[in-house]
Write a structure and sequence with these properties.
Order of helices and strands: EEEHEEHEEEHEEEEEHHEH
Mean pLDDT: 92
CATH architecture of the largest domain: Alpha-Beta Complex
Number of helices: 6
CATH topology of the largest domain: Phosphoenolpyruvate Carboxykinase, domain 3
Helix content: 10-25%
Radius of gyration: 18 Å
Number of domains: 2
Distance between the termini: 58 Å
Oligomer: single chain
Shape: globular
Length: 257
């Protein structure tokens, strides 16, 4: 039976028509929005010819039309990864049209909002977020709303191949800092100048596969972050000990002017 389900990821609204959405998406159910992008979803034993190899490996195909997207999921629709990856592709593509960026990053709460934990895959962002306990905010992906005045708003987004819903916050908080993390025997902090930070951030901006219709806007939003937040490198030991170093660095008496 086909259903229509309205989902919202920050300011990005989708209306998904097809089978019941995966339960991991239930926290993102929302009232219908006038600007919602229509997504027609079907399930098949095989993906259409010409499917992008990267999406085929995950188990879905995406075809964009002028007024809607058509997503095909391969095989069992109960698998969460194809659902999350397909919607990630759409949200990442369209985020700049809402003044937003989707970033591959974890996040933890700090005084005044959240700090992003940015690193290549395998460094341990999700492990660090899990070690933060009640201060966990996002395990692997965040959406930043740069259209608002002042500090960008941040949402946790459940787009990951290894879902961790217990680490995803349902609320939105202000961006306080961007921390580029690396493994170290002890927690260390070093401030980074804004322009350098935005250049380092660019590889972690999530883009659609293939042609990017909003490449220029995406780059401009990413580059604008340098003037709207503070950035640092954070030596990340195993366990929660890094939070003390992060808190001390972000205290108003020690933060750079």
């Amino acid at each position: 039976m086909n259903l229509a389900t309205d989902l919202r990821f920050g300011p990005v609204a989708l209306r998904v028509e097809g089978p019941a959405v995966h339960p991991l998406l239930d926290p993102h159910r929302a009232p219908a929005a006038p600007r919602a992008r229509r997504v027609v979803l079907s399930v098949a034993d095989a993906l259409p010819a010409g499917t992008h190899p990267a999406t085929a490996d995950v188990g879905f195909a995406l075809v964009a039309h002028a007024d809607h997207d058509h997503v095909t999921l391969r095989g069992d629709p109960g698998r969460p990864t194809p659902w999350l990856a397909a919607l990630c592709e759409i949200v990442a593509r369209d985020a700049p049209t809402h003044g937003c960026l989707l970033l591959h990053a974890g996040a933890v709460t700090v005084a005044g909002g959240v700090a992003l934990l940015v690193a290549p895959p395998g460094v341990g962002k999700t492990t660090a977020v899990r070690a933060a306990g009640e201060r966990a905010f996002a395990s692997n992906a965040v959406l930043l709303d740069l259209s608002v005045a002042g500090a960008p708003a941040v949402w946790a987004i459940p787009f990951t191949r290894e879902p961790a819903p217990e680490l995803e916050s349902a609320r939105s908080l202000a961006l306080v800092a961007v921390a580029f993390v690396h493994r170290a025997p002890m927690a260390t902090v070093e401030w980074i100048a804004g322009p350098l930070a935005t250049m380092r951030l660019m590889p972690h901006v999530t883009r659609p596969r293939g042609n990017d219709p909003h490449a220029r806007a995406r780059s401009e939003f990413a580059l604008s972050l340098g003037a709207r937040t503070v950035a640092l490198t954070l030596g990340l030991p195993w366990g929660p000990g890094y939070l003390d170093a992060l808190d001390a660095a972000l205290h108003p008496k020690t933060s750079p002017v």
